[in-house]
From TrEMBL:
<comment type="pathway">
    <text>Carbohydrate degradation; pentose phosphate pathway; D-glyceraldehyde 3-phosphate and beta-D-fructose 6-phosphate from D-ribose 5-phosphate and D-xylulose 5-phosphate (non-oxidative stage): step 2/3.</text>
</comment>
<keyword id="KW-0808">Transferase</keyword>
<dbReference type="GO" id="GO:0005737">
    <property type="term" value="C:cytoplasm"/>
</dbReference>
<keyword id="KW-0963">Cytoplasm</keyword>
<dbReference type="InterPro" id="IPR018225">
    <property type="entry name" value="Transaldolase_AS"/>
</dbReference>
<comment type="function">
    <text>Catalyzes the rate-limiting step of the non-oxidative phase in the pentose phosphate pathway. Catalyzes the reversible conversion of sedheptulose-7-phosphate and D-glyceraldehyde 3-phosphate into erythrose-4-phosphate and beta-D-fructose 6-phosphate.</text>
</comment>
<dbReference type="InterPro" id="IPR001585">
    <property type="entry name" value="TAL/FSA"/>
</dbReference>
<dbReference type="Pfam" id="PF00923">
    <property type="entry name" value="TAL_FSA"/>
</dbReference>
<dbReference type="GO" id="GO:0009052">
    <property type="term" value="P:pentose-phosphate shunt, non-oxidative branch"/>
</dbReference>
<keyword id="KW-0570">Pentose shunt</keyword>
<dbReference type="GO" id="GO:0005975">
    <property type="term" value="P:carbohydrate metabolic process"/>
</dbReference>
<protein>
    <recommendedName>
        <fullName>Transaldolase</fullName>
        <ecNumber>2.2.1.2</ecNumber>
    </recommendedName>
</protein>
<keyword id="KW-0704">Schiff base</keyword>
<comment type="similarity">
    <text>Belongs to the transaldolase family. Type 1 subfamily.</text>
</comment>
<dbReference type="InterPro" id="IPR013785">
    <property type="entry name" value="Aldolase_TIM"/>
</dbReference>
<dbReference type="InterPro" id="IPR004730">
    <property type="entry name" value="Transaldolase_1"/>
</dbReference>
<dbReference type="GO" id="GO:0004801">
    <property type="term" value="F:transaldolase activity"/>
</dbReference>
Length: 338
């Protein structure tokens, strides 16, 4: 029988393990060796993370296999590159699914952010590639930019195809409301990037976790969803420090980089549940409905959200182009026998 008091046991327990009691912890990385170490439930990837991982020697075999696949599919150079990219994204997802018991998020190219039909087509292509590899769509979340078109693509994928979506690059309350009304599975509001914007634009250089604008944004969204019984769940993303993570303990899910997961595993301070359904139900929030015109107006009124959504799309698109360039060179080398 253990003689360790509950208080002392809590002190011995890492912040990461305490956090897992309140929130589903997700690893935000394409490096599946990091995933193995922290034992998250799910994992999320994006074009920037895949680009970083594809440059690592440990993952060259996945890139080589994807290139072989792309060349074998034939077609124009553009089609071969596109098929290689799709295969590479899914190959990383498949490896990640060997390490996590839950789901992996695979992101649709940010360059499609304003084309609903193309986003739907690309999502279904990913799902087909997962199916070919024996993975059911229940284990996959398709990541889409939270533009109006992206949210409608999410709605269509959920309603017509039973494909679960993770709406990313989410910065405004208007985006969150539209996602809930679209009945998507999950949203990823970006905590750290909201903080970055406020530091850059307000002259203020530091915020305590409880007053961090990113933390406040996610708290409001979580409370709104729970108060009005929406099925969409909230996964806080893009953290800059462990204070932000701990300030959102109790959120449905939190996706955390390996660096911060490492810090949390070494941290033995007490983690308290900050968000829960009871508190949310007691919040003074009013239910709103947004059609396209209302969405565009309300989102546009939030300067931070407009700037960060545009910036996020540009950055993910730039990394997708870098990955494409790398693949083009490798395809040429293979064809030239190098």
């Amino acid at each position: 029988m253990s003689t360790v008091s509950p208080d002392k046991r809590r002190k011995m327990e890492s912040a990461l393990n305490q956090l897992k009691k309140h929130t589903v912890v997700v690893a935000d990385t394409g490096d599946f060796n990091a995933i193995e170490e922290y034992k998250p439930q799910d994992a999320t990837t994006n074009p920037s993370l895949i680009l970083a991982a594809a440059k690592m020697p440990a993952y060259q075999h996945l890139l080589d296999q994807a290139i072989k696949y792309g060349i074998a599919k034939g077609g124009t150079e553009e089609e071969q590159v596109a098929n290689t990219m799709d295969k590479l994204f899914v190959s990383f997802g498949l490896e990640i699914l060997k390490k996590v018991p839950g789901r992996v998020s695979t992101e649709v190219d940010a360059r499609l952010s304003f084309d609903k039909d193309e986003m739907v087509a690309k999502a279904l292509r990913f799902i087909a590639l997962y199916k070919e590899a024996g993975i059911d769509k229940e284990r996959v979340l398709i990541k889409l930019s939270s533009t109006w078109e992206g949210i409608q693509a999410g709605r269509e994928l959920e309603e017509k195809h039973g494909v679960h979506c993770n709406m990313t690059l989410l910065f405004s309350f208007a985006q969150a409301v539209a996602c809930a009304e679209g009945k998507v599975t999950l949203i990823s509001p970006f905590v750290g990037r909201i903080l970055d914007w406020h530091k850059e634009n307000t002259g203020r250089t530091s915020y305590e976790p409880h007053e961090d604008p990113g933390v406040l944004s996610v708290t409001k969204i979580y409370n709104y969803y729970k108060k009005f019984g929406y099925s969409t769940v909230v996964m806080g993303a893009s953290f800059r420090n462990t204070g932000e993570v701990k300030a959102l303990a109790g959120c449905d899910l939190l996706t955390i980089s390996p660096g911060l997961l490492a810090e949390l595993s070494q941290d033995h301070s007490t983690v308290t549940e900050m968000l829960n359904v009871e508190k949310a139900k007691a919040c003074d929030l009013e239910k709103i409905h947004l059609d396209e015109k209302d969405f565009r107006w309300q989102h546009n009124e939030d300067r931070m959200a407009v700037e960060k959504l545009s910036d996020g799309i540009r950055k993910f698109a730039a990394d997708a182009i870098k990955l494409e360039t790398m693949i083009k060179e490798k395809i040429l080398n293979v064809k030239n026998g190098q």
